[in-house]
Amino acid sequence: RSIEFIQKLDVDRDVSGISNWRDRIAETHQVDRTIGIENQGKSTYLLVSVNRQARGINLCAELHQTGKLPEPIDVESERRGIFCEFQSKDSDISQLMKEPLSQLLKEAEELLDNCHTFTLEIFLPWQHLNERVHEWEIFDVLGDSSRLSDEYAFIVRSLDRALNSKLKRDLAEKLQCLSDCIDQTSILSNFIELRDLDCKELFEITSLINLSLGKLGVKLAVGLPTIQEKRNEMLKALVKSSIPIALWVHETDTQVNCCQILQEFDNLLIAKNLKRFCELAKEIRSKRVIGNPIYHLGMLCDCPERMPTLSNQSNVSRARIPGN
User: Fold this and answer.
1) Which of 31, 99, 158, 236 has the fewest CB atoms inside 10 Å of its own CB, making it the most exposed?
2) DSSP assigned state of 54
3) Measured at the alpha carbon of residue 265, what is the angle toward residues 245 and 210, in degrees to the nearest 5?
């Protein structure tokens, strides 16, 4: 009952310590360890970290299931993850992802309990937070090419926040503030709303984000700056701010106006979705249909309750270089 109570308070909290204690007691008294436990509300997440290095990317994954310890996805015995080497200095990471990501997803699927699925959380370094992740290609169950968003519900998270202790602590504080106001009707007033990214105003915008101590999210009705230097400045500001949620669009239909986009954002930012990011991910996936104003949604959605265990590059498998 204690585990059930904790899960009702916070469905994503790791209760493995109490679960282990419960299992020992159940074994001692020879009773079913599942007595009194409801499976409703259990969440499963696959955390995939994409760590860019000098010669390529290090791709690691681990499965987080409510009430269980995180389980690394071992592609080979005694090894974790996959290292993908760049073919050139200008290599696009999306071109390297198809085969190794598909392999990790397949391994994770085999670890799931019956009738369960997982929400995918992809950790990217700040330089790649504007990746069009929904368009990444993977292999489906029959080996055909498919878009990631057609197969899985996912959110994008910050790898830098997972690596940096200060950013992680700041994120935890901001998320607590978000939790405190999540059931209030004024929750959207805690989000910065930007309808224009005129480059001459970018300094004021990034300053606003960096100083937004009382704000919990950012809604960008337009995409990030097209000029790389300006875009990098904006992405850095978002990560440093420790704001848990930022939403934008990679591109928009000329017939879609800012008000339509902001309304779609508001439809996502409801209590049910903010309490459980698996619900948010499912809702986002449902919006990825041609004609929807936020079909090409970009995002940063962070929760410090789940963080990846990042491996060393020397202890990963080497992927076949695509095309070789």
Assistant:
1) 31
2) S
3) 35
- Pairing outcome for strands 82-85 and 56-65: antiparallel
pLDDT at position 20 is 65
The 10s digit of each residue's pLDDT in 139-186 is 998 999 999 999 999 999 999 999 999 999 999 988 888 888 877 667
> Do residues 49 and 279 touch, judged by C-beta distance below 8 A?
no
Identify the CA nearest to 5 among candidates 219, 15, 237: 15
- Cα 297 vs. chain centroid, distance in angstroms? 13
Q: Is 123 within 8 Å of 159 (Cβ atoms)?
A: yes
pTM: 0.80
**Amino acid letter, 161:** R
Q: Per-residue pLDDT averaged across 224-235, rounded? A: 86
The dihedral built from the CA positions of residue 47, 106, 135 and 125, taken in this order, carries a sign that is: positive
Q: Which residue has the higher pLDDT, 317 or 128?
A: 128
Residue 162: partners with Cβ closer than 8 Å, 6 or more residues away: 49, 123, 168, 307, 308, 310
* Structure tokens that stand for 127 in this block: 């330089």
Q: Of 113, 120, 48, which is closest to residue 84 (Cα–Cα)?
A: 48
Does residue 173 sit in helix, strand or coil? helix
Q: Determine contact, residues 232/195, Cβ cutoff 8 Å.
A: no
Q: Let me know: does 284 contact 278? Beta carbons within 8 Å.
A: no
115: left (phi over 0), alpha (psi -120 to 50) or beta: left
DSSP letter at 155 equals E
Cα gap 276→266, rounded to integer Å:
16
